[in-house]
Write a structure and sequence with these properties.
By secondary structure, the chain is mainly β. The protein folds into 3 domains: 37-141, Sandwich (Immunoglobulin-like); 149-231, Sandwich (Immunoglobulin-like); 243-327, Immunoglobulins (Immunoglobulin-like, Sandwich). It is 6% helix and 45% strand. It contains 1 helix and 22 strands. Strands 10, 11, 13, 14 and 15 form a 5-stranded antiparallel sheet that branches. A 4-stranded antiparallel sheet has the order 4-3-6-7, with no helix packed on it. A 4-stranded antiparallel sheet has the order 19-18-21-22, with no helix packed on it. The protein is rod-shaped, with a radius of gyration of 39 Å. The protein starts with a helix and ends in a 6-residue tail after the last strand.
């Protein structure tokens, strides 16, 4: 009787212990972490880049202990890029460690070959390295874009850009210009060959980089490797020429009078003279604020042709003023 009681008590204790322990409802190796959100893919000059964000909820509806992410990749055979029912063989490609304040993550697949399509999916990992459920897959095809050909010419407060784009099987979006910090300074259209960058300081060397950009058949933007150049802006724009040159005969010679365009600060005026309109030579310079000059080194009865140009502080010379002619009426002493 006593032995039977002991057996009954032992069985009851085992039953109670079994009822008090909850079994793990997840399959072995699966974690209580949610699915990475917003998986996207795009192209870079060195491969295909995918990006994603943290799961908004875990499988249990609360915050999960995420230690990192596992990226898997599968190559897609040509002709199966749009196949929805095809199964692909995924391989582990990278493990990304979770950051304390990280909300958005990315990874670049540098093993993709030009023209190759790859599928990607991402798992969240818990503290023991167990996976959650995979993100919906995303596909991308790698297209390599050749860098542009670029020449820079310094101008006042910036640079003039001459460029060309190499032949490509995909549509060019244009060329982007960046400063040292990676800020976009300008974008240039593919149908043109010249552009301008403004906002630089005269006399200070600026290091710029240029990248071709194109749109893949899948609709995402691809950039080429950079072309790095340096330019030191300066005022290389010539001033507007003097206006309304007029000639007047005086006892002492021939007087030239002109007007400066509004807002053109001249440094000096260059006076030119010749015996034909196609053979003018410099005979004098006057300060930029002057508006007249008397030419006394002339011969009576000779017809002279005159013109003048303006120069700014940087030494840029304007186009010539209108050319006028006059004859000296009296021999000069």
């Amino acid at each position: 009787m006593r032995s039977s009681a002991i057996l009954i008590l032992s069985a009851a204790a085992l039953f109670a212990a079994a009822c008090g322990r909850m079994g793990d409802p997840l399959p072995p190796g699966q974690a209580r972490v949610g699915t990475p959100q917003g998986l996207v893919a795009g192209g870079r000059e060195d491969g295909l880049t995918i990006g994603w964000s943290l799961p908004s909820r875990t499988l249990s509806g609360a915050g999960g202990d995420i230690s990192g992410f596992l990226v898997e990749v599968a190559s897609v055979e040509k002709g199966k890029e749009e196949c929805q029912s095809c199964s692909f063989e995924y391989e582990e490609a990278a493990t990304i460690k979770a950051l304390p304040d990280g909300a958005v993550y990315s990874w670049t697949d540098k093993g993709a070959r030009p023209g190759e399509t790859r599928n990607y999916r991402v798992f969240a990992l818990d503290g023991r390295g167990n996976r959650g459920l995979p993100s919906p897959p995303v596909a991308a095809t790698y297209f390599k874009v050749a860098p542009p050909s670029v020449e820079l010419f310094p101008v006042d407060g910036g640079a003039k850009v001459k460029y060309s784009l190499p032949a490509s099987a995909i549509a060019y979006e244009g060329i982007s210009a960046y400063d040292e910090a990676g800020k976009v300074l300008a974008r240039f259209a593919p149908e043109s060959s010249e552009g301008r960058i403004a906002g630089l300081k005269n006399g200070e060397a600026a290091r710029l980089s240029f990248r071709s950009s194109a749109v893949s058949p899948q609709g995402w933007r691809i950039e080429s490797e950079e072309v790095a150049l340096e330019v030191t802006p300066k005022d290389s724009e010539p001033p507007e020429p003097p206006l309304e040159l007029a000639l007047f005969g005086e006892p002492g010679g021939i007087r030239l009078m002109w007007m400066a365009p509004s807002g053109e600060p001249y440094a000096k005026i260059v006076i030119k003279r010749g015996k034909s309109p196609d053979a003018l030579e410099k005979i004098a310079e006057v300060p930029g604020g002057e508006t007249s000059f008397l030419d006394s080194a002339i011969e009576a009865g000779v017809t002279y042709f005159y013109g003048c140009t303006a120069m700014d502080e940087e030494g840029n010379e304007s186009a010539p003023s209108p050319i006028k002619s006059a004859a000296a009426s009296k021999k000069q002493p």
